[in-house]
Amino acid sequence: MQHNSRFLQLVDQVRHHVQHIEALQLLHWINTNYPVYVIDVREKEEFERGHLPHAIHLSKGVIERDIERFIPHPDTEIVVYCSGGFRSILAAEALQKMGYSKVKSLVAGANAWQGSGLPWQEK
């Protein structure tokens, strides 16, 4: 997908404020039952076509509004992801501004996860 230049500029402006996690580290956390919430910030249709194991769907458009219903404690470990790792950076920054201190964005998103042949839940 070709992203618009202003969108990419915005992502680049906040990228350094956000912690990142590689797919294999997240897979290790999932496999060892590390206490982490995995949040898919893609659109509902994207989520319904498939998602990471144990992922919660909170699209980027509503995550700030709804996050406290799912994760009330701001010191909870959270990993957010989207398709390519751009929207998740923006979502992670927004959660940090809300006081969530342990938020990470999945590097290169679901595309890299699937491209590596890692576990994927399909409908």
Structure commentary:
This protein is α/β, with parallel strands linked by helices and 123 residues long. The protein has a single domain (5-115), classed as Rhodanese-like domain (Oxidized Rhodanese, domain 1), CATH 3.40.250.10. It has 6 helices and 5 strands, in the order H-E-H-E-H-E-H-E-H-E-H. It has helices spanning 5-15, 23-31, 44-49, 63-70, 87-97, 109-115, and strands at residues 19-21, 36-40, 56-57, 77-81, 103-106. Helix 1 (5-15) crosses helix 5 (87-97). The protein starts with a helix and ends in an 8-residue tail after the last helix. 31% of the residues are buried. The model has no long low-confidence stretch (mean pLDDT 96).
Task: Label this structure with key terms.
about 120 residues, alpha/beta, Oxidized Rhodanese, domain 1, 5-stranded parallel sheet, globular
Based on Cα principal axes, name the global outline.
Answer: globular
Q: What is the name of the CATH architecture? A: 3-Layer(aba) Sandwich
Determine the strand fraction and express it as a percent band.
15-25%
What structural class do you assign from the helix and strand content? Answer: alpha/beta
- CATH homologous superfamily name? Rhodanese-like domain
- Main-sheet strand order equals 1-5-4-2-3
Q: Round the mean pLDDT to the nearest integer and report it.
A: 96
Instruction: Output the helix-strand order.
Output: HEHEHEHEHEH
Number of helices: 6
The count of β-strands is 5
Low-pLDDT regions: none
Radius of gyration: 13 Å
**What is the percent of helical residues?**
40-55%
Domain count: the total is: 1
* CATH-defined fold name: Oxidized Rhodanese, domain 1
CATH structural class: Alpha Beta
- Main pleated sheet: 5 strands, parallel
Distance between the termini: 24 Å
